[in-house]
Amino acid sequence: MSPRTLLALNWKMNKTPTEARAWGRELARSYRRGTVEVAVMAPAVSLYGLKEAMPGGVDIGAQDVSAHESGAHTGEISAAMLRDAECTYVIVGHSERRTDHAETDALVAAKARQAQAQGLTPIVCVGEGLEVRERGEHVEHTLAQLRGSLDGVDERVVIAYEPVWAIGTGKTATAEDAEAMAAAIRGALREHYGDLADSLRVLYGGSVKPDNVAAICAQPNVNGALVGGASLKVEDVLAMLSALE
Ligand code: PGA
To answer: How far is the CA of 227 from the centre of ligand 1 (A)?
Structure first.
């Protein structure tokens, strides 16, 4: 059975706690629960109390988590803290963190394991840069990243394929490109998790908007989207949901 479509919203470094709660209340005025699952990944400081502001059935999550359990790690936020703030998901290995903070596959895997140890579902991001795509090495690059980032990670995981050249650039991969990579990722997941791979969600991310979300998510191996820019306005999120339903 194919998994339920997930619309995962990545606010990145946008929305103060006050703005985040106001957004949740605004969504609650028009949101009707449908077949698509929705989760909002907010900045850590805006998470607390956010779940109550969201309409019933909308989950929240974080954008990063510490690889450590607790203790002397100034500035870090643990998976247990996120759990207590009612998070369901946490993004790990987003390309902006891999670039800005030199996060390696091994670190991403350690963060995903910490998330799982607290009952959170990690959304593990992988994807190639433009030079890799132009050299035609995007499949091997992305699958190597995936294998490294899933070391010791069990099947309670969501994968997001986000080609770096499509993030925030307005350049979306075609639905066919997204499907080709999602199918390759599914193959690698099968090696790792056996038949369970068929029930795991593989998302596409990179300039997803109301006018392209349905075509991308209609692909057989694409089970939803990770959306940055178009996640900030309630109006765009409602438009994406109605396109998907
Ligand atoms: P974008 O970002 O939708 O603004 O391209 C996607 C992401 O980085 O998760």
So the answer is: 5
